[in-house]
Amino acid sequence: MxxxxxxxxxxxxxxxxxxxxxxxxxxxxxxDASFAALLDRCGADVLLVGDSLGNVLQGHGxxxxxxxxxMAYHTGCVARGLGTRGRPFLIADMPFGTYQxxxxxxxxxxxxxxxxxxxxxxxEGGEWIARTVEFxxxxxxxxxxxxxxxxxxxxxxxxxxxxxxxxxxxxxVLADAKALARAGASMIVVECVPRDLGARLTRESGVPIVGxxxxxxxxxxxxxxQDALGIQPGRxxxxxxxxxxxxxxxxxxIAA
Length: 256
Ligand code: KIV
Prior knowledge:
By secondary structure, this protein is of the alpha/beta class. The protein has eleven helices and eight strands. The protein has an eight-stranded parallel β-barrel with strand order 1-2-3-4-5-6-7-8, surrounded by six helices. β3, α5 (103-116) and β4 form a beta-alpha-beta unit. α5 packs across α6 (130-138). The chain is globular. The two termini are 19 Å apart. The structure holds 3-methyl-2-oxobutanoic acid. 3-methyl-2-oxobutanoic acid (KIV) binds next to β6.
């Protein structure tokens, strides 16, 4: 019997423990019940119902068209796949337009995600969203921040570009992460930044830093499941590795 069969569900305290003991956190996106059960069996620590479903499930060119109803639907599918004894911690992305205007909007949207089965919500943004993070955490909603490349701002950023390349830009990303951590975020995703900045965030922010295209030194890594299995519809980002290469089953690829 694998240790996973008797493993306790991952909690916020367990995520903090993994960080303080220098253990890595494995995060994968998931959008349905079958993959939820499979990723649980394979040992994923955290599942993220990402608004990347706009790209990989719906075929859009960005995450912007994804709605709260769609996020709640897929969160419910994943939560049912995990069941009451599932081990991974479940995070749901808050889609574009549901939290940027203010804390009350963010709370209403988060309530829908938590009622669908999420245990934490993820919102994109830096210092400007810290007041919303504080508002949510004070009301019992655990929050994961998302800094660096924030895909919902693709139009403002002028494309999916590496962020934090100059010393000034790197300091700004670090200031964003620290503001979110001070406001109560329990975890922060950092996307597409140079390796040094990923390492600095991990050392200095005080919360688990989960990287995607942010180098190997982060507390954990997150991958879109389609990317990890080499079935993304478009061109893969440079940091993406196809884990099916050299593995003869999805289970072995995911475990790797
Ligand atoms: O939407 C998503 O899947 C994400 C991850 C890529 C971090 O935000």
